[in-house]
Amino acid sequence: MSELVQGSVASNFIKNIVAEDVRTGKVAAVVTRFPPEPNGYLHIGHAKSICLNFELADEFNGKTNLRFDDTNPLKEDAEYVQAIKEDVKWLGFDWDRLCFASDYFEEMYQRARLLITKGKAYVCDLSAERIREMRGTLTQPGQESPYRNRSVEENLDLFERMRKGEFADGAKVLRAKIDMASPNLNLRDPVLYRIAHAEHHRTGDAWCIYPMYDFAHPLEDAIEGVTHSICTLEFEDHRPLYDWVVRECEMENTPRQYEFARLNMTNTVMSKRKLKQLVDERIVDGWDDPRMPTISGLRRKGYTPEAIRTFAREIGVAKSNSTVDERMLEHFVREDLKLKAPRTMAILRPLKVVITNYPENQTEWLEAENNPENPEMGNRSIPFSRELYIEQDDFLEDPPPKYFRLFLGNEVRLKHAYFIRCEEVIKDADGSIIELHCTYDPKTKSGSGFTERKVKGTIHWVDAAHALKAEFRLFEPLVNETENESEESFLSRINPHSLEILQGYVEENLRTAQPYDKFQFFRHGYFSVDPKRSESDLAVFNRVVSLKSSFSLS
RNA sequence: UGGGGAGUAGCCAAGUGGUAAGGCAACGGACUUUGACUCCGUCAUUCGUAGGUUCGAUCCCUACCUCCCCAGCCA
After folding, report:
1. A131, A150, A168, A506 — which has fewest CB within 10 A?
2. Which residues contact A325 (CB under 8 A, 6 or more apart)?
3. Interior CA angle at A302 toward A301 and A306, to 5°?
4. Residue A550 contacts strand B, CB under 7 A
5. Catalytic residue numbers of A?
6. Range with lowest mean pLDDT among A5-14, A215-224, A284-293, A342-351
7. A319 touches strand B (CB under 7 A)
8. What are residue A461's phi and psi, to 5 degrees?
């Protein structure tokens, strides 16, 4: 287990249960599992579950398996298992065992035969529609299938022939014989096995019958010796069936299921279906598009595993539906990057400045701290000469009150350099500002101890002659929040401005920046080098998160 | 209207018979060569509502209200 994230998880109801089970000796060793279905990429909601399972087991010196719940070949793909493994590893977790539900298909089949032998399961010839019709409703009991009382021998024979592939998809299913009048719909003779003549990404065509989640999952947990099987709230209704399967299949181990509320976050979508739709319809640039809430998207955007883990720990684990403010996630990545990322200057929207009283053909090198809050990061030298770029936002012709930046006649400090005063605004024929003429005061050099007068503002800049061209990608929420979001309106809620691409400059010493290198661009925020877009001479920086700001022009 | 869950601040979330932790956000102020960071302060006389038990209730009891989940051969 990685030591990246220190400290124990705050109290939560599941941890209390585990602690009690350990204290009373109900379980000898804690075993949890993270059981994704390989039908999509992992997202921040999965991260909550991953952290819960791994950190919980770790805290009690237990084990956690990574188990692929690959019981539906129609939706699953090997591409996803690879991506999921990478994401879990990247988050910093090491699983005890790597498991696949498909490895247990034979045992599951035998357990199903046991059920049949005990008269607890039967082969049903009803169509999917008939089964649905006969299931009853929320308020009315269901009707028993006419196939419900077939003999054990006939059931065994039919089930074996299902496995052999004698029947077409949908022709027959294996059902548990429980109670068609149960108020819990899950207990109205649930389907245990269905026929699907489909290629499975691991077992190929070895099987044409596949177990349903409700049958497979408890068996998987029991087979692996999982003690605490943690899932989300919508499975609460399934718990009686979970226990029924473990009991009736006579499993040696008796795992217990506990349910917690899945993560919802403001300004994003978390359903795999919607995320897949965004990918399939090319609305985003793949599962790892920085705008996606996927682990791979967050990674590409520049998030760190530590930030995600701390977030997962701090939001807590409970049973009430909730929506966490995305600013909480942002808070933890700022906190993590604060001491880790060197601070440097980048101009996202350049405005040229000419220091008219600075000698032409002269360059001086100024000392700059890489991170004042982390002196170990040392210093660097940055060039300063007659022509610079500053941020367009840092000059206003008609400034409002309390505007501390540059305007005609005003003086500001250039970070790490000198005070400059704006003397003249140069415009083109259209009246657009093309450059500023300023003067500097040599006495005000950074570090000189100059105190004769003060300025209210300090702005960042880069030297025009040395600056490195760069591209910046700024992100906004992919979808707009609405009061009542309906499925239909999902695509109409797509934010057309979720990606903004800017061309500007960074300090020349960023020439050697590598993919995923992170920087705090002075007064802008944290940025991370994009692993895919950064071609040889044009680095692309993704904005991880902006700096907080109490300033606004409006 | 059957069954299963949940209601503690704008958002998360502890607590659980003894008088409401913490985080995010927000708002003041100090500091500041980042309008950042940091620091200080403010932010629930009240825990969905109404009754009841008790010396004392967010916690126990009763009734009610609101929200979420369940009628896939998905997970």
Report:
1. A168
2. A265, A266
3. 130
4. yes
5. 37, 262, 272
6. A5-14
7. yes
8. -165, 165
For residues A383 and A499, membership in a common domain is answered with no
Which of the 460-519 residues on chain A come under 7 Å of nucleic strand B at their beta carbon? Answer: none
Q: Taking the CA atoms of chain A, what radius of gyration do you get in angstroms?
A: 31
- Strand partners of residue A221: none
| Rounded-to-integer distance, Cα A407 and Cα A423, Å | 9
Does A284 share its domain with A430? no
Residues of A (196-215) placing their beta carbon closer than 7 angstroms to any atom of strand B are: 196, 210, 212-214
Domain that holds residue A388: 345-464
Residues A528 and A497 in one domain: yes
CB atoms under 10 Å from CB of A286, counted, come to 15
- Position A18 pLDDT exceeds 60: yes
**pLDDT at residue A308 tops 90:** yes
pLDDT of residue A1: 31
Q: Which nucleotides of B are covered by protein (CB under 7 A)?
A: 1-8, 10-15, 21-27, 33-38, 67-75
Work out the average pLDDT over A73-90.
Answer: 97
Confidence grade of residue A482 (pLDDT, cut at 50, 70, 90): low
Q: Please report the pLDDT score of residue A535 as a whole number.
A: 60
Same domain, A320 and A373: no
Comparing A490 with A109, the larger pLDDT belongs to A109
A151 touches strand B (CB under 7 A): no
Does the CB of A11 fall within 7 Å of any strand B atom? yes
Q: What is the DSSP letter of A187?
A: G
Binding-site residues of A, in ranges, read 37-39, 43-49, 69, 213, 232, 262-263, 270-272
For the residues A200-210, what does the mean pLDDT come to?
A: 98
DSSP sequence for A383-406: EE-SEEEEEGGGB-SSPPTT--SB
**How confident is the model over A384-394, as pLDDT tens digits?**
999 999 999 99
ipTM value, please give it.
Answer: 0.96
Q: DSSP letter at A126?
A: -
Specify the DSSP element, H or E, that contains A474: strand A468-475
Structure tokens belonging to residue A164? 């052999």
Question: A502 in a domain, yes or no?
Answer: yes
Judge if A45 and A150 occupy the same domain: yes
pLDDT tens string A405-454: 999 999 999 999 999 999 999 999 999 999 999 999 999 999 998 999 99
Measured on CA atoms in the order A112, A117, A119, A124, is the torsion positive or negative? positive
The pTM score is 0.95
Binding-site residue positions of A for ATP:
37-39, 43-49, 232, 262-263, 270-272
Report percent pLDDT > 70 for chain A.
Answer: 96
Count the residues in chain A: 554
